[in-house]
Design brief:
Elements: E1 2-6, H1 13-27, E2 33-36, H2 46-49, H3 64-69, E3 78-80, H4 88-92, E4 98-101, E5 104-106, E6 110-115, E7 118-123, H5 129-132, H6 146-149, H7 155-161, E8 170-173, H8 186-192, H9 197-201, H10 208-217, E9 221-224, E10 231-236, E11 248-253, E12 264-268, E13 279-281, H11 283-291, H12 321-330, H13 365-374, H14 379-388, H15 398-407, H16 420-423, E14 464-466, H17 486-493, H18 523-530
Parallel strand pairs: 1-2, 2-3, 3-5, 7-8, 8-9, 9-11, 12-14
Antiparallel strand pairs: 1-12, 4-5, 6-7, 6-13, 10-11
Helix pairs in contact: 11-12
């Protein structure tokens, strides 16, 4: 089965699908599935644009609305995760995943699905230590804090994914797993993105949460985006027992969707030839959602997941074969995800712009149906209940946040020892900027070009590469230290908090406090870094 993988789409769906069609016409290669690693930007209207954490001048409608309205339909099944440049109000409607348009499926805050027997998992958002242990409490209209915290990864999603026992074939995260750069051509990466040097050398580039999942899940493939640079790595995992077979993960980070950028990759994945062509639920994942349902939290209070430390009566929420069997029986062994896409907001009309359209908190029928079918908590319904009860938690007022932090579970030191300022996500505001030199070679990665690499496409399309069976990477050194700054990864592009020091865009407290040097950031990033959009 041929799978196309894309980096940050930034709403340019027409360009992405046109590139795939061009690939088919010129090289007779037709992907069966398209995966997108975040910054998808499923923007339906002007209200959605207001919920996207980017400087106003980068809020462009792009082309998703045409697929939402039905004017166009995705020519290939598309599955994506969220990044840090999203219409958060739209994606929030589908915390457990769902269709954002016909043939375009969002995995939710975290999720696992199957296609032709291939098991695909993912986690949306980027890591920020100061929000990691909070519940999903945000809802539109967002304020300056919640418009960013809404897309920050939460520990409950990582906890759920860590309950998985069955093998994962493909996993997606927006930001890179921390330390992954030690397993690829690090010298080439720093040659292309020299301002990553300080974070790479201090091992603070990337997400500690994603790194934890990588070591636990050990998927065959792991795809990321966020840093707008192509990079490949090969990680051989350690075995826990003599009986355990050695496992390895092929990691690939994709560039963003722009002309002349290598933002698409085609890989061949072994699949079940007897499986159908429909996207399917994963029975083990559904069982885990049911088992962890009582852990759902919709407050901004910080709390820790159950662990074997003497404080919790139960800490293992992995599921038994019997629980998985029960899910299958509930579904009559029909795991096909229903095509129940529903319009939940007005669609953008170029002839009748509505610049003053305000976002509203919406409960999506898909989520209602999903929760009713499996006995799960509808997070948005719970938030609305809290608002109606006058708790105000769903409004995410700053005073409320502070109060909740003091009344929540004990503020123990974060399991990730990075300070908040250093972790502050710089969500990449480098949206559709002109590519003015300096990064043309970003498509270079540790993977040797495939002999059958298609010739350069016209200036209207990006290059597409076919990934070779093996990824030759030179792992300079493999240090494993604890840092967790995935955003920083984004940071490089995340101009928001990026007040980088001389060459590194280390976003640390200084960023937001106006750290003196914003070193020499590339011309094309300056506008963004200058914007006071810190993802703090």
């Amino acid at each position: 089965m041929k799978v196309a993988v894309a980096g940050c789409c930034h709403g340019a769906l027409d360009k992405m699908y046109e590139t795939l069609e061009l690939l088919q016409r010129r090289h007779n290669v037709r992907p069966d599935l398209l995966l997108c690693c975040g910054d998808f930007q499923a923007v339906r209207n002007e209200a959605d644009l207001r919920c996207m954490a980017v400087p106003a001048k980068y809020r462009h409608m792009q082309t998703f609305y045409r697929y939402y309205s039905g004017e166009k339909k995705a020519p290939v099944l598309t599955v994506f995760i969220g990044g840090n440049h999203e219409a958060s109000n739209h994606l929030q409607e589908l915390p457990y995943g769902g269709w954002v348009a016909p043939n375009i499926y969002y995995l939710g805050y975290a999720g696992v699905v199957r296609f032709r027997g291939v098991r695909i998992g993912g986690i949306s958002g980027i890591f920020k230590s100061h929000d990691y242990r909070k519940g999903h409490f945000e809802c539109p209209p967002y304020n300056q804090q919640t418009i960013r915290s809404a897309y920050h990864v939460r520990n409950i999603e990582v906890f759920k994914l860590k309950q998985l026992k069955r093998p994962i074939d493909i996993f997606m995260s927006h930001d890179w797993p921390r330390s992954i750069y030690h397993y690829g051509n690090k010298k080439q990466l720093l040659k292309m993105k020299s301002f990553f040097r300080q974070e790479v050398e201090s091992n603070t580039l990337g997400s500690p949460a994603a790194s934890e999942l990588l070591q636990h899940l050990k998927p065959t493939y792991w795809f990321s985006a966020h840093l707008h640079v192509k990079f490949a790595a090969f990680m051989q995992h350690e075995t826990n027992t003599k009986e355990e077979l050695p496992k390895a993960t092929k990691f690939l980070a994709l560039d963003k969707c722009l002309p002349h950028r290598d933002f698409l990759q085609i890989i061949d994945v072994e699949h079940d030839p007897n499986a159908g062509d429909s996207l399917e639920y994963d029975a083990e994942w559904i069982a885990i959602l049911k088992a962890t349902n009582n852990l759902v939290n919709v407050t901004p209070s910080s709390w820790n997941m159950p662990e074997k430390n003497g404080l919790h009566a139960k800490w293992d929420y992995s599921v038994t074969e019997e629980a998985i069997k029960e899910v299958l029986e509930e579904l009559n062994h029909d795991l096909k995800i229903p095509c129940n896409f529903t319009l939940t907001a007005a669609c953008y009309d170029p002839s009748k712009p509505q610049k003053n359209m305000e976002p509203v908190h919406t409960i999506n029928p898909q989520t209602t149906e999903f929760c009713a079918q499996f006995g799960l908590t509808d997070i948005n319904d719970r938030i609305q209940q809290a608002k109606e009860e006058g708790s105000g938690r769903g409004e995410c007022e700053e005073e409320e946040e502070e109060e909740m932090d003091s009344t929540g579970s004990a503020e123990e030191p974060s399991e990730y020892n990075t300070d908040n300022s250093g972790l502050s996500s710089f969500n990449p505001d480098e949206i559709m900027l002109d590519e003015e030199g300096g990064d043309e070679d970003l498509s270079t990665c540790s993977v040797d070009p495939s002999p059958d690499h298609p010739p350069e496409f016209s200036t209207s399309f990006s290059d597409i590469r076919i990934m070779p069976d093996s990824m030759a990477v030179s792992s300079d050194d493999a240090t494993d230290s604890n840092n967790e700054e995935l955003d920083k990864s984004g940071g490089s592009k995340q101009g928001e908090e990026r007040s980088s020091t001389e060459r590194s865009l280390k976003r640390i407290g200084g960023d937001e406090n106006g750290n003196s040097g914003v070193k020499k950031i590339k011309r094309r990033n300056q506008a963004i870094y200058a914007a006071e959009d810190e993802d703090k």
